[in-house]
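User: Fold this; tokens only.

Assistant: Input:
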Amino acid sequence: MIIEEIRAVLVAKASALVRRSAADMAALMHPDFVHVTAGGRTLTKADYIDVFINSDRVVYHSQEVRELDVRLFDTVAVANMVVDDRCSIDGREIAETFLALSVYTWKDGRWLWVAGQTALPRLP
């Protein structure tokens, strides 16, 4: 089932973040990857890995996905979810919830992360 396949990619992504594995993260991402952060910054694949894996500025402790919804369009999957992040930024402990949209493409027998966007939830 597509939702479980994408969930497995998301679990692998969270693991790569926490373990700070640039190689594992790169293997999950399409070469032309693009991501827009909640702060509005656009990141390429190299940028994303530099900011969230290679930099000592951001250190992930955990990332959990919930309320995952996945829609399949031929060889493209679009996932919409709520993400709970626990990390340190410049030594400050952060626990934040984000809304996220991720796009995946089926290539060479596996799902690759092509694009993403993260946003802070709307306040009631």
